[in-house]
Specification:
8-stranded parallel beta barrel, homodimer, 8-stranded mixed beta sheet, alpha/beta, 33 strands
Amino acid sequence: MTKYVYSFKEGSKEMKSLLGGKGANLAEMKRIGLPVPSGFTVTTEACNFYFQNNHKINEKLQKEINKHLELLEKEEGKKLGDNKNPLLLSIRSGAVISMPGMMDTVLNLGLNDDTVEALAKQTSNYRFAYDSYRRFVQMFGDVVLKIPKYEFDRTLDKVKDKYNAKLDTDLSYENLKEVVDLYKKIIYKHTKKEFPQNPKEQLLMAIKAVFDSWKNERAIIYRRINDIKESLATAVNVQSMVFGNTGKYSGTGVAFTRNPVTGERKVFGEFLINAQGEDVVAGIRTPKEISELKDILPKVYGEFIKTCEKLEEHYKDMQDIEFTVEDKRLYLLQTRTAKRTAQSATKIAVDMVKEKVISKDEALLRVTPEQVNRLLHPSFDEEELKRSKKIAKGLPASPGAASGKVYFTSEKAVEVSKNGEDVILVRTETSPEDIEGMVESRGILTSRGGMTSHAAVVARGMGKCCVAGCSEIVVEEENRLFKVGDLVIKEGEYISIDGMKGNIYKGLIHTRSPELSDDFKVFMKWADDKRKLGVRTNADTPKDSKIAIDFGAEGIGLCRTEHMFFSDKRINAVREMILSDNKDDRVKALDKLFPYQKEDFYNIFKEMKHRPVTVRLLDPPLHEFLPSEEKDIKNVAKKLNLDLSHLKEKIMKLKEFNPMLGHRGCRLGISYPEIYEMQVKAIFTAAIEAKKKLDINPHPEIMIPLIGDKRELKFLRELVCSSADKIFQKEDSVITYKVGTMIEVPRAALTSDEIANYADFFSYGTNDLTQMTFGFSRDDSGEFIREYKERKILQKDPFESIDINGVGKLMKMSVEAAKKKKENIKLGICGEHGGEENSIKFCHKLGLDYVSCSPFRVPGARLAAAQVTIKE
Amino acid sequence: MTKYVYSFKEGSKEMKSLLGGKGANLAEMKRIGLPVPSGFTVTTEACNFYFQNNHKINEKLQKEINKHLELLEKEEGKKLGDNKNPLLLSIRSGAVISMPGMMDTVLNLGLNDDTVEALAKQTSNYRFAYDSYRRFVQMFGDVVLKIPKYEFDRTLDKVKDKYNAKLDTDLSYENLKEVVDLYKKIIYKHTKKEFPQNPKEQLLMAIKAVFDSWKNERAIIYRRINDIKESLATAVNVQSMVFGNTGKYSGTGVAFTRNPVTGERKVFGEFLINAQGEDVVAGIRTPKEISELKDILPKVYGEFIKTCEKLEEHYKDMQDIEFTVEDKRLYLLQTRTAKRTAQSATKIAVDMVKEKVISKDEALLRVTPEQVNRLLHPSFDEEELKRSKKIAKGLPASPGAASGKVYFTSEKAVEVSKNGEDVILVRTETSPEDIEGMVESRGILTSRGGMTSHAAVVARGMGKCCVAGCSEIVVEEENRLFKVGDLVIKEGEYISIDGMKGNIYKGLIHTRSPELSDDFKVFMKWADDKRKLGVRTNADTPKDSKIAIDFGAEGIGLCRTEHMFFSDKRINAVREMILSDNKDDRVKALDKLFPYQKEDFYNIFKEMKHRPVTVRLLDPPLHEFLPSEEKDIKNVAKKLNLDLSHLKEKIMKLKEFNPMLGHRGCRLGISYPEIYEMQVKAIFTAAIEAKKKLDINPHPEIMIPLIGDKRELKFLRELVCSSADKIFQKEDSVITYKVGTMIEVPRAALTSDEIANYADFFSYGTNDLTQMTFGFSRDDSGEFIREYKERKILQKDPFESIDINGVGKLMKMSVEAAKKKKENIKLGICGEHGGEENSIKFCHKLGLDYVSCSPFRVPGARLAAAQVTIKE
């Protein structure tokens, strides 16, 4: 028969899934001899059983609870509801995965009009007894009876005003008694029943309330956000009360065994004298720093510090502790692994290796890749943040924090940033034409598009803060404003955006820059020693390349060439090329672009030196380079000396219904081989020049986008090789290079055996592969993907983390087919997934050679790659 | 050692691939005792060897030719180049697959200044000898020496003028001799060499010329159009000459053993007296009907008719014959299976079964599915067609022929057609808003979009003629005209379009309607007896349903509900629904649509009776139902009493970058369950009403579009079933139904095992599956798919015929996974491929239960399904 209740003496920290985190750790602390008030835990299984049983506590469970209550009474020598020596209880939830503040607690249970008197007499402390009673009635009313908390708060404030009491502690025993009477009236008003005087009834009601709190709204939301399964359920801990509110030798507090912000090895925390747990959180009085306890209760302090050491030693990790002092006696009420900042996590991991507490492998598992990434981005000043008004929330598209004045066009952003203004570029969605504006802005906010929209991808590439797809805002570019509900933010007004959380704030919030510590460097070195997967970067400029190398990238896995086409000097030549009616004119325009492209590649090779540089030949549809607004079209017609109606006709002809599935990628290279020829010529001329001038040995890898059929690659491979040969002959120098393709069209994955014949490498372009496998346009699907996640149709956004069941299956088929055909084919990934933890783990298991991601995600990728190796 | 030359005595009709069609059949005719002049065939292997050998005839081949020449000389008792008894030869190409008129022929080879005199003396016919010499020099100059033919023609005309000769036959021996001398000068002028007098040299040069003609431009184009491999090569037939130009008892002609247009069993053909083969083709004199030969040369005629019978009996098919009569002696120069019209093909197949010449299975293989389909569509009057000017060519998107005045908007088309005018609707591309205009037009012409563009799909569904993606034309809707180069066609001008060939003509051409013969019905019955694959139809209206049943459809495989939303009364309710800000308003608008939808389904059930009707719930993105033009937006705002700027905002918000991959299909059903609920309610209310009122037993199959994940289908299946249950309870009646999904998103194919759990049937939506597997937008890819076909990157347009390597692989995975999970799952296809021959064969092999296609393709599909069963 299932056992639903465990005494603390029966449990251990390994029993978390049954006893919840709190229960398991209370038992564990008891087991290792720490001062923990006695009690028992009603299991998570009991909770699930309760839900299945129509939210009823059945007889069997009730019996088990009663049995453990009796044992507890015996142990404590007190009795629940006893008129002379009453046992009081705390009832606390205990989920398997900590959900701080999400669920309910009832303290001082067992008090009623009789037992409060007994407690008063027994302790000779009427004030304490009635303070406890007041607290209990309030908590019970709030948590168990669901009466709005503010009614109690307001009543308490009124009584405080009446007696001119500044703090709760200024209230006398009589005052508190008056409060209790008023509270009882509130309860009667709401429930039409008297406050329950029977402690056993109180107990069952409280246990039920904790069970039910597992399904309250805030818990549901928290679980959804943190991906916690509902079936885990919560345990309930019933524990003998200890009192921090018996007077000046009592108190309560929370502490961390190290500094959770900096990682410094020094106990960190705060406490309140003459108070119960909730007072610390509520902020009614200002708590004192833990070190001050030394002066007030030196012996207790010493004991506490030792306990902290013991706990760390036992758990081999920083702990987050709740404690109470009752008349100079220390009790521990909770311990758990402490949450910490990224900086602290790294420092503690490195320190604990030095302290020989944990191994390097353990240390590497202690920090999440996301934390590592967070270290690289600026964050808001926490104090200013608290005072700021959050006005909307979008997708956390690119981490970091930024404040600036809003502007709605790239031109304007460029213009005002030249005057030294900080700009947040706000657009419905960005397009490649906005690149310059994005470069000049502090952050980017869009109302459309998902985690892999243009704005998101480019911003992450730049390491620039971006909140994307914020559908709450309506951008009215023509009116130079955006709206959030009734709120209107006009051009030039300040906003602040948090790219890690997706939050938008009104007004300016200052940011702090990151400093990479020596600990960080040591830590990352350990990760590199461990990992098997290579880590490259997606970088299109020498600047990005440099950043990525600093962050540990081993090469470029994706250098997009289209971004190079947008700057002012080039775009006209690009447009001239596109608008040419014949090959000769196209070649002439391409000749103008050649020196720019050559210089681009030269400077990238200069940064990357011997490291491989995968250059993707031109990918986007040509219409992306043409203007769409009437006035811009007129400008271009004038600049290029073209007939306006002819230009418009041409633009119309190039327009596509679904550009994503249109005339782009290798399809362009096949229609206009001269474009790819120019690019290949630029790459190899630059490589040879770099080799000669800089005495380095560049390793270009030419990547053909959007291949769907082997014949496309055969055609273009021949074109690349013959163009390269021409340069080698002309320059009398040879560069070692590879030719490969992106696998981003489902058909390419399906026919990888055929395609492998013509490829030295495959790079999985999982952005497009996901788009086509799901039939989700990344620019349009943000809204319904969010809906799908809410309805649990999708567990995760497939643009964030590789969809292993579908897209992953295609990748697996492809990898197997390719390796069968060509054992040594090099395999990588250059979709945005290359920087995401679970996707990196999947790539490791698939047997890829490397992942490639934006520069600011490189360290996280290095760590994720190390972690999956360790876990294997 | 490879044998490169075969005597006619060595060959047979089975040796086509080696000897070419002509050579094999000459040998065969010789074998069965028909009068064929002797000769030999240089094989296709020799031709390929010649190409590999740098276009040179090597010594070995030359030896073999000489050996066979000697044998021929011995047989004929004549000698090539002999001054007394010269052998003359005809040199003709012979491809494996007949390429009429594409390649080269040289007659009368062996003549020179000496042998012509010998021939004259021997035959006592100077005129004949010099006529032959004149012909030879001209043909040799044209075919072998590549001198422009018009130079010879002009010279001949000049001499004719000079001697006042009306016809060639009016020229005397002296005149012809003068022509020969002038011809020789032309040759010298062009080649700087004398006309070659050595007959052996002439022979080798002629053989080379025939080989080379395999790679001339018109042959290359013909092969590309007809999908003939270059490696098949051509053979060369060297044959002793017989002469139709020796006088009034000689002649030459071509004939069919039956009527190739009607199929009537009567020899059909024409001949010329005193002429050589090329004269018939050249049309210099008007040939006589074959029956007239009876009067002129009755014995020869009798012999010829007997020969025709013998050939048909031997080949068991209608033959196309070339013959020559030399001094009352009949010679056969060629026989081959005759090309024929669709009507003729069907009649002959049925007749030959009745005549016990072939079996039913053989008969079914004698007609192509495409021919059957052609029988259903009107075609142009052939005479008028010849006189008409072809101005452009697009994709043959939907067969048939249509003439009408051009109009550029749906509204205008509807308006003028009401006045009885025939309309050709000309658009850049059609959209669902154009449906009414399309219905009212005789034909549709678009400048954009491919074989599965909206225009193409809808037109085929309607059995309406359509030419799509005609990129040569530029449509200027605002100016109410379109341009083809310099030609401008204005609103109201007549054009004619041929949807079978893709041709566009200026002006009116009358059309003829098809009449379905009894033969056709008998033939289709045989097909139905044979086939295993079910054939359903894609039909959205009662009218289409009726047509499809008449054409033999066994059910509806795809009933699209969105087309039902466009008619005038409904569209406003649809728009109201879309523009609603909350569910209540949406439900109100949907309530208005419900009675229409119910009626739609009622009438379809009425036509379809017990047959299954697969209804696809709403699929397209909602913005397709909203106006895009400024003035239409204003109208809608007025009609629905909406704030204009609010309406515009809403339209902006719904706009998508890639609608193909956007918020559509089941994604709509999940966001707005009330839409699907209304549709399901309409289907089942209609089915119950039909059951009660009409005493029929409808079989609805509810099909959910665009499923990519099992959870989508689970959610929507539950919605369908619970909505159905509600109706059943309310109406106190039950309808048997199925719930299934389209497999059109690659991920659905990849996870078919999971999805099968929630589906009673799968229908492969190969249009979208092809779009996403290739990453080809069907609206945008027409142009580059054409280019891909030209460059041989694609063999076929994957929207026309299933791409077996890629899309087919996905389908195969899906079928296997689904059947493994659920043995009895029903599998069909409803993409446009369901009507295409090769795709139908693939579906049969995959083990699908049925194909579904537009009504007018149903008979072709029935035949294709029968053929694949026979061939198995």
